Amino acid sequence: MRDEDGLVQALMRPGVLPGSEAGVELIETHISWVLLAGDYAWKLKKPLDLGFLDFSTVERRREACEAELRLNRRTVPELYEAVVPVWRVGEGVRVDGDPPAAGAGPDDYLVRMRRFEQSALLAYRLAAGALTPELFDRLARHVADFHAAAAVAKPGEGFGDAAAVLAPVRQNFAQVRERIEDPALLAELARVEAWAEAQAVMLAPVFDARLAEGRVRECHGDLHLGNLIVLEGEPRLFDAIEFSAELRWTDVVADIAFLVMDLQLRGRNLLANRFLNAWLERSGDYAGLRLLPWYVSYRAMVRAKIAAIRASQVDGEARTQSVAECARYLALAAAQARPTAPALLIASGVSGSGKSSQSQPLVEQCGVIRVRADVERKRLFGLDAEVASGSALGGGLYSAEATARTYARLAELARAVVAAGYPVLLDATFLKRAQRRSLSELADALGVPFVILAFDAPSEVLRERVRRRAEAGKDASEADVAVLDAQLRAREPFEEEELARVLSIDTRSAPDWRVLMHSLRRLWPAAGTADR
């Protein structure tokens, strides 16, 4: 800890901070000190100028504290309470209150927060095996809704265009290069940098288009497991980036890429895939997949830079560990350049056959992007997935015209997902041969494998599932038993030419995907290896 003026030590003296009589616990990061005392946490920003942040003056630190308070009250207002001045008083310090003398200015500023147990952090819970996969579904919804409500950047404001996006990427490479000496790491750094620069040229029109479409917003900016907590059973964001508007005003995909990257680094690709799919389903931003690998690489380089900065601040074993951490992040950044193995799969079957619930292993294990017709149909008509449309069988959202629009939208999204390099699974009934044939022709045109996953179960099982789901009223599907019966009458069997691409899945009980995967690989050789 480099506390040249002794302020941290002064603040840690018993009685200075409220509730500190029993002692103060100190947590240090590369840019701040956090002092834990009683019911509160007090954050003091380090007097640093690192290029990407400038806390070098008291006034700049005050501005950063006030920004931190505003930004984090968007998601956890009950935690972030106030910005508090620190006054020098004789040989010691005092927090809050009036100036000790007329005209005296604060020595510094603290952000006062309600303290929470470290066990509330998602990073802690993940390491302890105390996180359920379902929590990442709720997290994805929370993040997507946060993005939807965030302020939108406009072209010309200096955020989100190709030049603004590339500037911090280049800064990362420069600042890592300044702080590492290992020739192998420097060579890897050069390879990642060359790929990032080449991709930036290709993606420049995409960056500009996303800005024009309103996808660049005042985001969190530092969305990794260490900045996520569980409050009253629900996942929440905290500790958003306050020190740089340029890093905070970013594409929403750049925001979620941080969490995807963090989970991947920890070897939790299944959770990364689950979160990604749930966020895409809630946001509808499948076009953003085109940018995801580039942003995952960028986010890995952000953490590599932080590890390199930390290595320059410490010695001995701590430095060795920081350099090793930098190398791990650099390897993950490089991995985003790997070739992809896209495919087009459709989940065919009547309501209640398990198309959504039983395809989850494909989403998690194979990195498949699932697009649900029930969700996209409602999105086309401006409805949230869980909102009932009140449409009668064959009418409203379920008229022939609405169904045709829905299937056309599925094909459009499939094209976008495949073009981004990902395998896609279209989750719809696909009862008609013409519906299946059009997607088969699309797959052939895109030059990717085509697979029909045929989900089915005995009719009595289907009816019981549909009845329970309709009673619960928590799913995007509005199918009831009458709809199921109509589907059973209307479905057209597979033609002989289709059967070569069909994988039949009996869902009367949970399918064994370890067995099914062997059959799937005959139709899609890259199954199980397409995950980045």
UniProtKB/TrEMBL annotation:
Domain Aminoglycoside phosphotransferase stretches: 62-292
Taxonomic superkingdom: Bacteria
Cross-referenced Gene3D superfamilies: 3.90.1200.10, P-loop containing nucleotide triphosphate hydrolases
Alphabetical list of InterPro entries matching this protein: Aminoglycoside_PTrfase (IPR002575), Cell-binding_unc_protein (IPR052732), Kinase-like_dom_sf (IPR011009), P-loop_NTPase (IPR027417)
Name listed for the protein in its UniProt record: Aminoglycoside phosphotransferase domain-containing protein
Organism of provenance: Thauera propionica
